[in-house]
Amino acid sequence: MNSREEILRRVRDGLLDLPEDERRVPMRRSAGRHAIVDPTERAEVIERFVDRLREHGSLVRTVDIAGLPAAVADVLYGMSVQTVLAAVEPGPAWLDRWASAPGHRVVHSGPGSVETGEAVVRDAVAGDASTGSLALDVDGGPAVSESVPQICVVRADRVFVSLPEALDHLDQRRPLIWLGGPGDVDLARQLVVLLVE
């Protein structure tokens, strides 16, 4: 056994004593090399992200934070749904306008929830402009299904130029699922993205 193998053996042995959730250490791969500060470059990244989403068949609307409840309501009215599953924080504020209409019901997902809805409203934790995909928090959220329309709200400052840059800004221990992109065309057609600038 050479010295490299001995060091690796010691590291492996030391990790065995740690709880499972402490064995992984988040590590920034790019160390900030992809940081974008120029407004023109930032606008190009957002435009590329929107173009990729539309190429895959998703509907994209740009809104400001004040107009978000109205935009969510407009999309849900267009879908003619009566029950919505909320998998967002702060879900109630985004859905108040739509939920105030007679016959509309908002179901909040959570651990152990068996409730379903005709559409799902989600909050994306990141977007990848190179593929047009979105990172969603798995904890407490409902399963992603091609048969249920998905409304994803994503803040413009959470859209990154590439997947490595997006991963650099996320907690590696947080369970995520990626939605959309070129391999997810059927699901992308059920996706409405509200981009908050």
Written description of the protein model:
InterPro entries: FTHF_cligase-like_sf, NagB/RpiA_transferase-like. This is L-lactate dehydrogenase complex protein LldG. With 197 residues, the protein is an alpha/beta fold. It has a single domain, classed as NagB/RpiA/CoA transferase-like (Rossmann fold). The protein is 31% helix and 24% strand. It has six helices and nine strands, in the order H-H-E-H-E-H-E-E-E-E-E-H-E-H-E. It has helices spanning 3-15, 39-55, 68-79, 91-99, 163-168, 185-188; strands spanning 59-63, 83-87, 105-108, 119-128, 133-137, 150-155, 159-160, 176-180, 191-196. Strands 1, 2, 3, 4, 5, 6, 7, 8 and 9 form a nine-stranded mixed β-sheet that branches. Helix 3 packs across helix 4. The longest helix has 17 residues, at 39-55. It is globular and about 70 Å long. The mean pLDDT is 80.
